[in-house]
Design goal:
membrane; 5-stranded mixed β-sheet; globular; ABC_transpt-TYRBP-like; transmembrane helix; alpha/beta; 17 strands
């Protein structure tokens, strides 16, 4: 029996080892080279997730170094023919000595770039495209080496979803731009709008400045929602970042912003929508690539007309706009949903209730029968003492658990209100503190000033010295703020390289002196290249008519002028 168990274990281990060895040999034998040409930079979350999906699916099929990944950065260089020419020359130069067996392209820009250009290193090589939102089928005439998966758009189903979640909505505004992709999306949207409820007022905005969009969003009536298609830049040429501009839009908007590009949008304040999954999309493209490299003809693989869109939502934004969760479609994915107390400790609670119920039942049964069972009184007495000890032990255990829970709650409260890196209060705590100060000083003769502070050229610090040095600069700057402000003042990590000072009992002139002292203090932070840290600061003094948003807005505008006027300066008055 012992020998049989030993032999079975040895055989399983041997088979597993052979399987791993065979997978490595298979990857080594498949010495194919694949080029993944991305339209956008990996800072764009969609591109990063799609690339991860491709890499994961190809793992074990080809050696990792045989997957070449290029990024066109088309969100910053939108439809720039000179830039495209330089990319063409670069690719020709890089891959003249590295023959490519197959190309995977992601998103519209890379697809149309390959359609319009012919490369010596990739002549007649198979192309598997993905992420194309709107396909002009005419461009594929004669391109027998192209196949792939259309990302598509889900305008019709998103509008239907909006109507089911918010039946009071009568107006939907689709947001796009004037880029080549934006124009194609607009044309497709016009066709899709014809298929939805014609009682809705549906508009397409694609010619606006970002400031105008923010202004309109801040005063949008409640019967309106936004559905974001794609924005690369506004009509002033300003780059639209999903991590900054989209987040700012969703923060200021009085109405929900819906979208369809999953991981890019879901954590930037978008309420959700029918959304796709870039990781799954990339995996699907890699599977097609493997079929082709294993010998299947490109012409035998039809183009898949649309990727999968799943109802996906941000719990915090649903709460913000009081959306009834019962209206969500079946199978919806909900991000950022907090764990309730019962959900977190359900096993412990249910076990405790079961034990208490069981013990209570025993006590009741014993009590009910005690009068009829005179002969077993001694036994019942022993049982009751035993039960009491067990209850006490369980009560003591629960008390210990309650102490642990209280400690965890205190820790969660600290984490919710503190910036871990600088150990300063975070934006949430700062907003609460500012609101309390405004309530105290709104009818007081004392002054209240705020200072919005930005570390100059912080991105260059990260780029030149690395994010670890950038983190050290943030910590050192926070220490300077704490050392040089008054005991009654508050320093807050506002976000990124921005800090906020709350200065009670300080008018503009007094606040200016404090900030001047701080500017001198941070100049002692010296970088490896002997450069020093400087700050741009915007001041605003509380007015009787101010609310939190208007006071911060004036400080932020003055910070904007400080940066625009050369940085390393303090602006204390709003400019017109």
């Amino acid at each position: 029996m012992i020998f049989r168990r030993f032999f079975s274990g040895f055989l399983c281990s041997l088979l597993f080892g052979l399987a791993v060895f065979q997978l490595e040999c298979y990857a080594a034998e498949n010495n194919f080279r694949i080029l993944l040409l991305n339209s956008y930079h990996p800072q764009y979350q969609w591109t990063a997730d799609l690339s991860d999906g491709v890499k994961s699916e190809l793992l074990g099929f080809i050696p990792p170094e045989n997957l070449h990944i290029e990024y066109m950065d088309e969100r910053r260089f939108v439809s720039d023919p000179d830039y495209h020419q330089k990319i063409s020359q670069l690719l020709e130069y890089k891959y003249r000595n590295f023959p490519i067996d197959l190309i995977i392209s992601s998103d519209d820009a890379a697809f149309y770039f390959l359609i319009k250009n012919e490369f010596n290193f990739a002549q007649d090589k198979p192309v598997v495209f993905g992420g194309v939102n709107v396909l002009d089928v005419n461009v594929l005439q004669g391109k027998t080496n192209f196949t792939g998966v259309l990302e598509g758009m889900e305008i019709k189903d998103n509008i239907n979803l909006i109507q089911s979640l918010q039946p009071e909505v009568s107006r939907v505004i689709l947001l796009a731009d004037k880029s080549e992709l934006g124009v194609r999306m607009r044309q497709q949207a016009i066709q899709d709008i014809k298929l939805v409820n014609n009682l809705l007022q549906i508009e397409i905005w694609d010619d606006f400045s970002f400031d105008y969009l923010l202004k309109m969003a801040a005063q949008m009536p409640q019967d309106t929602v936004f559905l974001l298609l794609a924005i690369h830049k506004d009509n002033q040429g300003r780059y639209f970042s999903f991590e900054h501009e989209l987040k700012k839009l969703t923060e200021i908007s009085r109405v929900p912003v819906y979208g369809m590009w999953g991981s890019v949008m879901i954590n930037q304040g978008v309420i959700g929508g029918m959304m796709n999954n870039p990781y799954q999309h990339g995996s699907e493209l890699a599977k097609i690539a493997k079929e082709i490299l294993n010998g299947q003809a490109v012409s035998s693989i039809p183009i898949k007309q649309k990727s999968e869109f799943v109802p996906t939502f941000n719990y915090m934004v649903l709460e913000k706009f009081n959306i009834n969760k019962d209206y969500l479609p079946a199978g919806s994915l909900i991000h950022n949903q907090p764990d309730g107390f019962y959900r977190k400790y359900s096993v412990l609670i249910n076990l405790t209730l079961f034990i208490v119920a069981l013990l209570s039942a025993v006590v009741v049964i014993l009590s009910f029968n005690i009068n009829r069972r005179k002969k077993v009184e001694a036994l019942l007495s022993d049982l009751n003492r035993d039960l009491e000890q067990r209850v006490k032990a369980r009560t003591k255990e629960l008390a210990s658990k309650n102490v642990e829970l209280e400690s965890m709650m205190q820790n969660m409260k600290y984490l919710a209100n503190t910036d871990v890196l600088t150990e300063l209060p975070n934006r949430r705590a700062g907003m609460k503190r500012l609101q309390k100060l405004q309530q105290r000083y709104s009818h007081s003769r004392f002054n209240l000033s705020v200072a919005m502070i930005d570390i100059d050229y912080f991105k260059n610090i990260n780029d030149c010295f690395g994010h670890d040095i950038g983190d050290q600069v943030l910590k050192q700057t926070a220490d300077v703020l704490q050392d040089l402000i008054r005991p009654s003042d508050f320093a807050i990590r506002w976000g990124g390289e921005e800090f906020l000072l709350l200065l009670p009992n300080a008018n503009t002139q007094e606040a200016y002196l404090i900030c001047t002292r701080i500017q001198a203090g941070v100049k002692k932070i010296v970088m490896a290249d002997n450069s020093y840290i400087t700050l741009s600061i915007g001041l605003a003094e509380h007015l009787a008519s101010d609310n939190t948003e208007s006071l911060l807005k004036r400080a932020d505008e003055n910070l904007y002028y400080a940066k625009g006027n050369g940085r390393n300066r303090i602006e204390a008055e709003t400019r017109s």
